[in-house]
Amino acid sequence: MWGGRDRVRAGRRAPPTYRAAAEGARGEAGRAGADASVQLPAVRRVWAGIGQAVESAAIAAAGLVVCALVMLAVWGVDQGFDGDPLLQWRIAADAWLLGHGVDLGITPGREAVIAVGAEQVGQSFVVTLGAWGIGLLTLWLHWRSGRRLASLPILDASIAAVLGAAATGAVGLVAGMSAQHATAAPNLVQSALLPAAVALVGMGAALLAAHGHDWLAAAARGLTLEAQWLRTIRAALRTGLGATAGVLGVGALLVGVGLLLRFTDGLLLLESLGVTHVGVVVVFLVQLALAPVAIVWGASWAIGPGFMVGAGSSVSPLGTDLGPVPALPLLAAIDPGAEPWMSVVVALPVLAAVVVGAFARQSTLAGTPERPVHWWELVVAALGGAVLAGALLGLAAMLSTGAAGPGRLGETGPDAVLVAAWGALEIGVGLLLGMLAGGRGSAALAVERGGSSIREVFGFGTSRGAADAAGGAGSGEAADAPAEWREDEAGTQEVAPVSVERDAAAPSGVDEDASADADDDAATATATDADRDADTDPAQRGAAHPEPEGDHRPR
After folding, report:
1. What is the pLDDT of residues 115-165, one digit of tens each?
2. Which Pfam families match (predicted)?
3. Long-range Cβ contacts of 139-143 (<8 Å, 24+ apart)
């Protein structure tokens, strides 16, 4: 009977316990989590790209809205909202596109020819001089977006940056298509590409600033470069960027000083335009948009090559030859004459580079007693920084060159090649002088041995001959030591090193047994010495081993 009941119970399936159910739930959750972890990077990548595209499109649209609001104020105050409102929108879109380097083709109408009374005014021309103040605003806002993207993985951040640039290009294309007119038409291809390039440069610069150190270290490991070369490359990059900023700061200083000294001439030019109060604000905003171009022209003037304001003109520290120029108050900073003291201005970029080189010597190239700075590191850092600064200044000069109007105004701006060449030369000299002067009293150069090989000079390790020479020098120093030092060293015995690692690796129980055995051995050695002394001295032998008083034999 009981056996049949047991068989029935054995045939039934036991319900799952709580532990088994929990383990099953954890298994299903783990499989779901694995699937989610596989899908998470793709979802994050999609949402990051969508968010950056929306943000970039909003940045571009905000720039267009600001330009449109300015034109709306002019239209309402000066014209009483009379005329075509689309004309104001087209002017705003043209201004925004010019701020991103887009070429604008202009064909004056018959009304302009009749008003001026010259047939040459009716000829078509292209404005290629960019009002980069608007573009720098877009660049700065996208740089801030790039700093936020830097917290994402590099693949996700790169995809988001590309999608953001594409959204900016789409807004630019729409603005270019809406601004097409018979009298003024922006280039549609450039309308799509150049705003996108500005946005991409801003986000790329932010990503490079956040991960540049890691990327440079990874490139150094991939190319098997030594630490000294990595330090030198980092110093060259920093000094190049710093020297470029310094020279552009010199240009801004010169433009500000010129406007201050010739403030009256600027007011006369503004009055000659005959603008209203709102027109004064618009002229001020136009000059703000052209301020980056004026700063680059000032830097080119300080470097030496100068710039042109129309074909056949020349503005440089050595002389000024100007023709008719546009009635823009910003151009009042140009001194029509050449003073003898202007040639001294060429030293300002060199002084700026000296300051940058001294700071680099005190920070990046300071060196340590274990890793001192060699002379070749200073030369390579100065040369690399000069080449980088020259290239950046040449690029800035190229972007600040173009056509500002018809006729002779088709050629304005500095010569990019001359600016790059002279800038690299002056900055290189200044950086080298600053690095040499900045190391005194804080970090001296490493002492080069007379027999240094080419491999040692360029930091590729120590040659065999130099190692032998160093060993021979050590032997010579030992031979020249005083006699008592040599005797002490000869009498000194070499102590065998204690294996700390083996003791540290042993278990705690083994350590206790070993210490106990050591104590027993020490006690045994002490007793042996006492017995030896007792054998030699009877008195001590009796004191060490007293006779028993009674019979202590076991019964």
Report:
1. 444 455 567 889 999 999 999 999 999 999 999 999 888 889 999 999 999
2. DUF6350
3. 139/198, 139/199, 139/201, 139/202, 140/202, 141/59, 141/202, 142/56, 142/59, 142/168, 142/198, 142/199, 142/200, 142/201, 142/202, 142/203, 142/206, 143/202, 143/203, 143/205, 143/206
What letter does residue 123 receive in the DSSP assignment? S
pLDDT at 234 over 80: yes
Residue 288: Cβ within 10 Å count? 14
> CA quadruple 394, 400, 406, 408: dihedral positive or negative?
negative
For residue 12 the two structure tokens come to 């039934």
Residue 352 contacts residue 245 (beta carbons within 8 Å)? no
Residue type, 511: D
Q: Predicted confidence band at 375 (pLDDT cuts at 50, 70, 90)?
A: confident
413 close to 397: Cβ distance less than 8 angstroms: yes
**Strand boundaries in 369-424, DSSP class E:** 412-413
The SS3 of residue 358 is helix
Pairing of strands 184-186, 308-309: unpaired
In degrees rounded to 5, what are phi and psi of residue 213? -65, -45
Question: Would you list the domain boundaries of the chain?
Answer: 30-211, 212-440
Cβ density class 496-521: b for 16+ within 10 Å, e for less: eeeeeeeeeeeeeeeeeeeeeeeeee
DSSP string, 240-263: HHHHHHHHHHHHHHHHHHHHHHTH
Q: What is the DSSP string of 225-243?
A: --HHHHHHHHHHHHHHHHH
Tokens of 51: 């968010």
Q: Is 246 exposed, middle or buried (0-12, 13-18, 19+ CB in 10 A)?
A: buried
* Residue 391 identity: A
